[in-house]
Amino acid sequence: MTISIDATTETVPSTPESVPVARWVPWLFQVGNLTFWLSLYFYVPILPSYAESLGAPLGVVGAMLSAYGVTQLLLRIPTGVASDWWGRRRPVFAAGLVASAAGAIAFYIAPSPWTLVGARAITGLAACAWVGITIMYAGYFAPSESTRAIGWLNLVNATGQVVATWSGGLLAQHYGYGAPFLVSAAVAMVGLACIAFCPEPARAARTGPPVTLDRLWKTATAPALIGVSLLSAVQNYATFSTVFGFTPVYAERLGATRADLGTLTAVSLIPFALAQPITAWLNRRFGARNVVVIGLAMIGLTAVTTPLCETLPILLAVQVVAGGARGVVGTTLMGMAIRRVSQSERATAMGVYQAVYAIGMFSGPLIGGLVGEVSGLPMIFISTGVVALVASVVAVRVLRDA
Q: Which among 66, 152, 54 has a CA at the least distance from the CA of 366?
């Protein structure tokens, strides 16, 4: 089912897992989704340099960046299970927006470098709402349309990240470091107003046994799920130790301005977004395993070559390649995570998948920061590249049945 804009269509038809709503509701929900990601990413390109401006060494910068993933690792599964048990998604979405605004304000008023670690942890808590957001939006559609619905949701997700990182750099350039944080908080409140008018999808009927620790354990320890989740953790390790971590620091040492830092991150996210609609075709044409293996290898090679970039344009070109590779790898692995899981357990599988890949989100910048303090900034990228290249070799065996 699609969202029709025909004047004769007044509502999105009801299904056992959806609720009749006016045709504008999914569109308004997407506006809320857009504000959610805008609020989380306005300040991402300037965050490392902002921390350094407060006197934070690379180790503290790494701890701050890793806090975002630590919170998600700990809370994504409980968030998903609680939302399923409660049968409500909108409160999770609302709480995410409030936490996003609170984290932005905490960054703005941070009195010391270590305060930034707590602020980043709050924004990681906000990001846990993504589990509820995806389920709520899919609830407006028939089950057969859920994949397509999530695809559009992810496209808005990526678009928000591109717009936020690019404009956030400009805001910092013209109005100072504090501007992106204040705008982030304001935009989150706009999103809160939007979802206030989006009704809760009907609670899906529980046709199977209730969620138990035994079922959760069996789902969480399925070899196929563990394999793709760990590979995704490596992809996120690379992402959060480079473009969302220390690549802006390296760019700044090449002479990049605050506006350039926003452009740098946006240039990486644009191919990431464009990769979303072509990934399915690539999987059919070349096979899912080959897409992941080659993608991880490209991520590794771009990381290793980053210290060799002597000018900002060359660094930007490398980020284009890296962003496209991350896009196809991430989308392919997410599809693999739920491909062989029964419909009644897909939310649990996705929660586990997202929690495991959060290991990479916090370990990448944390380990990268420690490596940087001991061996210098270039070694962060070299070590990250080696990890991704090794993962590409491991993926040949792990995904042998893909």
A: 66
Span 17-203+214-398 CATH architecture: Up-down Bundle (1.20)
Alpha carbon distance 144, 115 (integer Å): 46
* Domains in the chain: boundaries: 17-203+214-398
Q: How far is CA 275 from the centre of its chain?
A: 15
CA distance 190 to 23: 21
pLDDT tens, 39-89? 999 998 888 889 888 888 888 888 888 888 889 888 888 887 777 677 678
Residue positions counted in the chain: 402
Span between the terminal Cα atoms of the chain, in Å: 29
Which residues are paired to 12 by β-bridges?
Answer: 21
Q: How far apart are CA 277 and CA 119, in angstroms?
A: 34
d(CA 401, CA 88): 36
Q: By C-alpha distance, which of 28, 30, 23, 29 is closest to 3?
A: 23
Q: CA 363 to CA 70: how far, in whole Å? A: 8
Q: Rounded to two decimals, what is the model's pTM? A: 0.74
Is residue 249 within 8 Å of residue 48, measured between CB atoms? yes
The two most distant CA atoms of the chain are separated, in Å, by 66
162 phi/psi in degrees, rounded to 5: -65, -50
**Could you tell me where the beta strands, DSSP code E, fall in 212-262?**
none
Chain-centroid distance of CA 176 in Å reads 26
pLDDT tens figures, 346-377: 667 777 888 888 889 888 888 998 999 899 99
pLDDT at 141: 77
| Cα 236 to Cα 38: distance, rounded to the nearest angstrom | 20
What is the distance between the alpha carbons of residues 258 and 26, in angstroms, rounded to a whole number?
35
Q: CA 314 to CA 306: how far, in whole Å? A: 9
3-class SS of residue 139: coil
Contact status, residue 332 vs residue 283, Cβ threshold 8 Å: yes
